[in-house]
Amino acid sequence: MRRLLVPLLIGVIGTGILIGLGTWQVQRLAWKEGILATIDARLAAAPADLPAEPDAEADKYMPVAVEGTLMPAELHVLVGAKDLGAGYRLIQAFETGGRRIMVDRGLVPLEAKDAQREGGRARLIGNLHWPEEVDSYTPAPDEGRGIWFARDVPAMAKALGTEPVLLVVRRQEAGPGGEITALPVDTAAISNNHLQYAITWFSLAAIWLMMTGYLIWRVTRRSETEG
Known about the structure:
3 helices, single chain, 37% helix, 6 strands, elongated, alpha/beta, five-stranded mixed beta barrel
């Protein structure tokens, strides 16, 4: 029994820890699914007027409808979109109600970056967004060519002379068109790997338990042989 005590303790403690980690990931999964459901519901809500003082936390994902004028100055954010390939997000200044904000109109092909696009009056429906895309590996924008590598709302607002407010267009109901494919905000880019993590931890717990059982069997067999 003394020979079995150590492997038994290691097996029980190790299995308990791994099961605890798996259970924690299941709880995190439920938490993340609740957040995603809340965001999806907000994205699909009826559009409202642009808030007087949009807040990056309270108003993130808020559906908004605006009418105003698309300005000719543009920024282009290099991206790759599923089923569409590489291209640029077209960011333009938009004047509405005496204010000047930014709108992300969607994807233009690489070859259409410098195409002539009409400005003018437009009605846009989309969602306010302050994406967190910039990290220490993000290259600095090539401001001379108007090419950016992430949507940095404060920096882009400074470049375009607008409020630090970005409306990601879901659909355009009136105004100038062009070769632009809307890339509306959704939850697809929000990582949710907690199920895979839970399966990994529970699988490791099962393996640990089997190894413990095998070790106990080997110790028992050796004791019987020596006896």
